[in-house]
Amino acid sequence: MKLKGKTAVVTGGSRGIGRAIALACAREGAAVVVNYVAAASAAEQVVAAIRAAGGRAVAVRGDVQDLSQHDRILSPAVEQFGALDILVNNAGIARRQPFLEATPPAWEEIIGVNLKGVYFLSQAAARLMIPRGGGKMINISSVHDTHPMPGNSIYCIAKAGLVMLTRSLAVELAAHGIQVNCVSPGAVATDENRDRLADPAYREKVLSKIPCRRIGAVEDVTGAVILLASSESDYITGVTLYVDGGMLLS
Predict the structure, then answer these.
(1) Which of 5, 28, 107, 146 has the fewest Cβ atoms surrounding its Cβ within 10 A?
(2) Which residues contact 119 (CB under 8 A, 6 or more apart)?
(3) Which residue of the set 119, 155, 202, 242 is catalytic?
């Protein structure tokens, strides 16, 4: 068990890749705080699955873009499990808007969740980790932090900012024993996109861009996250690991 005795907070942990990360952290021995915004029943299902397997977990509601809720998101790690060792900044949103139609409210929401919220939640987490001598932060980005997506410029800008946030925090927090890294998935099958990927024409279009010729599974992402959350990555910081089957190479 690579995370035995550790406590992890996973934002957006009730669905999709976040759910898979929460379950993987628990399988590796970590106690897990499963953060959610609206999907309370889904978050409780994740907690129930972890507990049924003999693990420890709790679901906590909190919107990462609301800085006043950050203490609510992080405090259960300390109050219920004794410490905060790992923060996985997975929560994210996309609001498809062509550039010429993009609105300030969309900008505020997307940047608020995908970048501003990550920055200040990481700040609060660092203040809990430093007295313990260190910790791990993993930011979940996207291949679109590098590859533009037409009609989704605000999302791409936020994710690109997340890469520089990762590098900047890695430099500032290294002296405190905190490693900060980023995982950027490509095309990964989740409940949210499974119906689209079931369409043969759409699936072939996606596959044509992936040298490995397969759609990623959530386990491809969780493997990278567990590596970066474990002691095996103690000499890795400030990197962005692309889990995309070679998509960015094509």
Answers:
(1) 5
(2) 165
(3) 155
Tell me the two tokens of residue 163. Answer: 């890469």
Pull the structure tokens for residue 214.
Answer: 């397969």
Query: Which domains are assigned to the chain?
Result: 7-240 (3.40.50.720)
Nearest to 119 by CA among 152, 155, 163: 163
Residue 6 dihedral angles phi and psi, to the nearest 5°:
-100, 160
Tokens of 219: 């386990």
d(CA 149, CA 142) in angstroms, rounded, equals 11
Q: Which two tokens stand for residue 10?
A: 């996973």
CA-nearest of 41, 21, 15, 39 to 191 is 15
Active site residue 155: yes
Distance, CA of 30 to CA of 44 (rounded, Å): 17
Closest CA to 188 of 155, 157, 158, 212: 212
- Nearest-angstrom CA–CA distance, 230 and 143: 23
3-class DSSP string for 178-202: EEEEEEEECCECCCCCHHHHHCHHH
pTM value is 0.96
Distance CA 160, CA 118 (A): 13
